[in-house]
Every structure is written in structure tokens, then in C-alpha cells.
Structure to design on (124 residues):
């Protein structure tokens, strides 16, 4: 089992920034992928960003490329720095853990563990 806990969401004006954190605990795996997904009201959960288990390779959805940055520390925690936020970024953001054999980037169906989610609201 892997436990994921997100923090850092909130309300921000368009053009502002937020930094999400995802604390990881539980069983240790040697290889895995982690990332962020988001789900807006009435929409399906969508991929945002992913990072490889050694934290070298990253992948971003086109909608956030150049504005969001995913990173990882030595304790397997991951972060999402979100800059130049737009109202369309409003959603619940979920931290995700996928096994080594998943796609790159992993799809929502391939995610084994999810965090509880943190709300991000961007006002215009």
C-alpha cells in the first residue's frame, strides 16, 4: 500500500501561483511513476503532469506546459508549482502513483493509488 496526501490548494486570482505538495508513505517500491491529475465539475479526470521515479524525466499536458513544473525530492514526495494560473485550471487536483509497467505518461486507469485531492480555485 502507498498513501498519498496532498496539500497546498486554495483560492488565487488569475495570473497567480500555487504550489501543491504530495507526501508519500507506505510500502517502498524501487521503480514507479508519479504525477498529478485534475478533475473539474462535470468533467472527467485528466492528466496534468508526471515524473519518473528518479525524478529526471517529466511530462506535461499541453494545457499546462510552460506554466506548471513537477518535481520530486529524495523522500519520494512530489510537488506541482503552478504559475500564471487561469480560471480553467480550477479543479480538484489529485496526486497519483502508477507502477513501473504503466504507460508514459500513465493514464488514470493505470494509477494504483490516489490522494484525497486538494481544491484549486482560480478567480477571474
Amino acid at each position: 500500500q502507498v498513501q498519498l496526501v496532498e496539500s497546498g490548494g486554495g483560492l488565487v486570482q488569475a495570473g497567480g501561483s500555487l504550489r501543491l505538495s504530495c507526501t508519500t508513505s507506505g510500502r517502498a517500491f524501487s521503480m514507479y511513476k508519479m504525477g498529478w491529475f485534475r478533475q473539474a465539475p462535470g468533467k472527467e479526470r485528466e492528466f496534468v503532469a508526471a515524473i519518473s521515479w528518479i525524478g529526471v524525466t517529466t511530462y506535461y499536458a499541453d494545457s499546462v506546459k510552460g506554466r506548471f513544473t513537477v518535481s520530486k525530492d529524495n523522500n519520494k514526495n512530489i510537488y506541482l508549482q503552478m504559475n500564471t494560473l487561469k480560471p480553467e485550471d480550477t479543479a480538484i487536483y489529485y496526486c497519483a502513483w502508477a507502477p513501473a509497467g504503466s504507460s508514459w505518461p500513465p493514464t488514470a486507469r493505470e494509477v494504483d493509488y490516489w490522494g484525497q485531492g486538494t481544491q484549486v480555485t482560480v478567480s477571474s
Summary: The longest strand covers residues 18-26. The mean pLDDT is 94. The radius of gyration is 13 Å.
